[in-house]
Every structure is written in structure tokens, then in C-alpha cells.
């Protein structure tokens, strides 16, 4: 029994420290994801140390102390995404003059329940829908949305990185981009919300994993590039999509620091969107960040429909000082 506790403690201490090992290999970076799960296991092992008949010598106390420190360190990362933390984005206090709702959904390319997504869209009626992992089959299936969503962009791909954008709001500008990798698209649009221009980025970089990119490098670079662009944007801006990164990771924190974007989940919850089929290994992979021009009306994880991701819905209100389009300044 003592050997089991020592081995479990050593593994938990190592995996807590692993993300700080120099390098971007997926075997290192993957441990940024399951911090909640690690914390739960740390607590269980500490209970084992307390209740099981094990001799508590100096070595045992060293392991226990290190395990407690590891648990506190995990709490440090995830605590902002609990109700114990102050919210970063306030709720809208008044009925908004201008608001925008978005729904982001990684459909899982091989999922054939397109009607499930269509039903969710019909129920919640977002102003904009970004569907990820879409191929030509999904593009054909989602033609049912065309009547309600006359403004569209599509990039059907068979490599799990296709994306389709459906909007009720007209586009002023639209751009299909391949920011870092030739086979991984992103979209950037300027939409008009009651004649107010808003810039929206939709992203889906590859994750570090044994079946995708061996390292986190391309994902990290893409998020850094977009973060710097967002910081320079002179319009209200939103960034949405499956970033293949958790909300509390150093990469996402760096993106938020570069972009000055707000995270409406802070102080409200994890809003775990992946994995829809396995509750034990869930974490927040789908995100919506925005500039300080918005307050929150609603955010919620929607019901699953066969994908490995739950859809994420958010409704934002423009703050009072953005009632008119911003005048462009000469530079």
C-alpha cells in the first residue's frame, strides 16, 4: 500500500511540474489540460495518506508536503474559473441597445447528426454560427440554414479543419486566412451590428497531440499573432472557436495578455465543451473572448448532438459608449 501511495504521489508531482519542462512537445504540453482532474486525484491520494495504515516517516512527510504544494498549484490555475473568483466581464445592467449572439460548435466531421446542430441553431437563433471540422457533406447538409443566415463563408476540408460561418449580420469585409499552417484555415470578418462595425475572428488551430501536431508551436504562434492583431483593432472585437487549448493554459493567458481580451467565463465556471462523451476528461476547449466594449447577457454550454464537443453559446451587449460607428483617424 505504501508503495502505491509513493508512486501515485511521485507521478502527480511530476505531471504538475511537467508543463515547465523546456519544449513544446505534446508529451509536455498535454499536462496543461487536466488540472481539475489532477487536483481531484491529488485530494484522493492525500486522503489515502491520512486514512490508510502507512508509516509516516520523514520521506512520507516530504512526499505529502510536495503533494499539498502540487494541489495548491493546480488550484492557482483553475480558481479564476470558479464562482469563488470575481467576474471579469459584468452582466449588462440595462436592456441593450445593441447586442450580438454567437454559437461555436465543433461538429466532429464524421458525426452524421447534422439535424441535431440545425435544431440547436433553430432553438437559440444566434446571430452568427461558426461550425468547425466541416467538410463538403456538412456544407450540403447545412443548406437548411441558408434562409435564416444569408451571409456566409465556407471552407470545406476533409482534414478535420474545415469551417463554415453563417451570419444574420451583413459582412463589411471578410477574409479566409491560413495564418500559420497551409491546411488550417481561420476566418476574419467585419460585420455590421445596426451600422456599428465589429471585427470577429474565428480560429481552430491544431492541438499538440500524437495524431495532430507533435508540438504546440504552430498553435502558440497563431494565437500570439492573432492576439497582437486584436490589440491593434480599432473596433469592438470578438475571438471565437475551438482553440485546442484550455482556458487556464500559459498560451491562452499569453493570448489574453497580448490582445487585452476579456474572458466572460472568469468567475462563472469552466463551461467544459470537450469531451462530450466522457465526463471524467472534460475541459474548456471552445472559447469566446472579446474586447472591453461588451458586457454579458448570457453564456451557456448547449446540449450535445453526437459530436465530441458541446456547442457554446454567448450573447454580448455593446456598452453604452459604442452607440455610433467609430470615426477612423488618419495615421
From TrEMBL:
Pfam families: Exo_endo_phos. The chain crosses the membrane at residues 6-27, 39-56, 62-85. SUPFAM superfamilies: DNase I-like. InterPro entries: Endo/exonu/phosph_ase_sf, Endo/exonuclease/phosphatase. Keywords: Endonuclease, Hydrolase, Membrane, Nuclease, Transmembrane, Transmembrane helix. GO terms for molecular function: endonuclease activity. Residues 103-309 form the Endonuclease/exonuclease/phosphatase domain. The keyword Hydrolase applies. This is Endonuclease.
Amino acid at each position: 500500500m505504501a508503495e502505491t501511495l509513493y508512486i501515485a504521489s511521485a507521478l502527480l508531482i511530476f505531471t504538475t511540474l511537467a508543463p515547465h519542462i523546456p519544449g513544446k512537445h505534446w508529451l509536455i504540453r498535454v499536462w496543461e489540460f487536466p488540472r481539475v482532474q489532477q487536483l481531484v486525484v491529488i485530494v484522493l491520494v492525500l486522503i489515502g495518506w491520512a486514512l490508510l495504515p502507512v508509516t509516516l516517516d520523514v520521506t512520507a512527510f516530504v512526499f505529502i508536503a510536495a503533494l499539498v504544494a502540487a494541489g495548491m498549484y493546480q488550484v492557482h490555475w483553475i480558481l479564476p474559473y470558479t464562482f469563488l473568483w470575481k467576474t471579469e466581464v459584468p452582466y449588462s445592467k440595462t436592456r441593450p441597445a445593441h447586442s450580438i449572439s454567437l454559437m461555436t460548435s465543433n461538429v466532429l466531421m464524421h458525426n452524421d447528426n447534422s439535424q441535431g446542430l440545425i435544431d440547436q441553431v433553430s432553438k437559440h437563433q444566434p446571430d452568427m454560427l461558426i461550425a468547425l471540422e466541416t467538410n463538403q457533406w456538412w456544407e450540403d447538409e447545412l443548406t437548411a440554414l441558408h434562409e435564416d443566415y444569408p451571409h456566409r463563408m465556407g471552407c470545406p476540408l476533409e482534414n478535420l479543419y474545415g469551417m463554415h460561418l453563417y451570419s444574420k449580420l451583413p459582412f463589411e469585409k471578410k477574409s479566409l486566412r491560413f495564418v500559420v499552417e497551409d491546411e488550417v484555415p481561420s476566418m476574419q470578418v467585419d460585420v455590421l451590428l445596426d451600422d456599428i462595425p465589429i471585427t470577429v475572428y474565428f480560429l481552430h488551430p491544431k492541438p499538440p497531440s500524437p495524431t495532430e501536431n507533435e508540438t504546440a508551436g504552430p498553435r502558440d504562434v497563431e494565437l500570439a499573432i492573432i492576439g497582437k492583431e486584436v490589440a491593434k483593432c480599432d473596433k469592438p472585437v470578438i475571438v471565437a472557436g475551438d482553440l485546442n487549448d484550455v482556458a487556464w493554459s500559459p498560451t491562452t493567458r499569453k493570448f489574453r495578455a497580448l490582445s487585452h481580451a476579456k474572458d466572460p467565463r472568469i468567475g462563472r465556471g469552466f463551461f467544459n465543451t470537450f469531451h462530450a462523451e466522457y465526463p471524467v476528461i472534460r475541459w474548456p476547449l471552445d472559447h469566446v473572448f472579446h474586447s472591453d466594449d461588451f458586457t454579458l447577457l448570457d453564456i451557456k454550454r448547449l446540449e450535445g448532438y453526437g459530436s465530441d464537443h458541446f456547442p457554446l453559446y454567448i450573447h454580448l451587449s455593446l456598452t453604452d459608449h459604442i452607440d455610433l460607428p467609430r470615426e477612423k483617424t488618419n495615421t
